[in-house]
Design a protein that fits this description.
mainly alpha; 5 helices
Length: 120
């Protein structure tokens, strides 16, 4: 169990370093959309906002479960800054929790899953 906690903390520290030094922005963020971090999440928040204002909105491809979330202008900081980071933390936690660390191949697998450009 201590190995998993250590792996979780190291993974979060590496991701924090990559985000804070803007390496992820430089190499992985595309110029499409707003050009910032979590631009795919911005589309979901805009759909939630549109649904809460009872307007005719575009269909989002991520499923309708997100549209059940409440929206007010007071939630902007929460939706744009906190929720994506929580999703990242939960993703790392569950990847490490699910995979048993039998040998070093599994450590390598965890790092491939976490630091894969598609998941970052």
């Amino acid at each position: 169990m201590n190995k998993k906690i250590f792996l979780f903390i190291v993974s979060l520290a590496i991701l924090y370093f990559l985000f804070s030094q803007e390496y992820i922005y430089t190499f992985l963020v595309s110029n499409s959309g707003s050009g910032g971090y979590f631009s795919d999440w911005e589309a979901i928040v805009k759909a939630i906002e549109c649904k809460s204002n009872l307007k005719n909105c575009e269909i989002i491809n991520y499923g309708g479960i997100y549209l059940l979330l409440p929206y007010t202008d007071n939630f902007n900081y929460f939706y744009y800054k906190i929720v994506p980071v929580l999703f990242i933390i939960l993703f790392i936690f569950y990847v490490i929790k699910i995979i048993e660390l039998k040998n070093y191949k599994y450590y390598f697998l965890i790092f491939l899953l976490i630091f894969n450009p598609a998941s970052i």
